């Protein structure tokens, strides 16, 4: 009986890249961090201005907008490669 080498037992196991593992475009990271920072600045501005800024007429909805912007940035982190 012929003896098999270890190369025959384990075929080529080099990982192959599929289309889903491509790196992100250059603009992805700045936009991601931009959303998070703009959301944070939005909320800080609302609190520091005692509700007069950024949009005085919508009141506490400013907090929802700020958290929404930060949440979009957070969701983008799940797609960051």
Kindly describe this structure.
The protein is mainly α and 81 residues long. The protein has a domain at 25-47 and 59-81. 52% of the residues lie in helices and 0% in strands. It has helices at residues 6-9, 28-48, 61-77. Helix 2 (28-48) packs antiparallel against helix 3 (61-77). The protein is rod-shaped and about 85 Å long. It starts with 5 loop residues before the first helix and ends with a helix.
Features:
81 residues; mainly alpha
Task: Set out the fold topology.
Blueprint: H1 6-9, H2 28-48, H3 61-77
Helix count?
3
Flag low-confidence runs: none
**Distance linking N and C termini:** 48 Å
Portion of residues within helices: 40-55%
Query: Got a strand count?
Result: 0
- Biggest β-sheet: count, sense, barrel? none
- Evaluate the radius of gyration: 24 Å
The structural class is mainly alpha
Average pLDDT, rounded to a whole number, is: 88
Outline:
rod-shaped
């Amino acid at each position: 009986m012929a003896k098999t080498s270890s190369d025959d037992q384990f075929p080529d196991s080099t990982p192959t890249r599929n289309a889903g593992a491509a790196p992100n475009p250059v603009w992805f990271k700045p936009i991601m961090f931009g959303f998070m920072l703009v959301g944070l600045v939005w909320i800080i501005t609302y609190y520091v201005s005692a509700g007069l800024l950024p949009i005085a007429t919508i009141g506490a909805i400013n907090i929802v907008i700020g958290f929404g912007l930060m949440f979009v940035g957070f969701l983008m982190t799940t797609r960051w490669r």
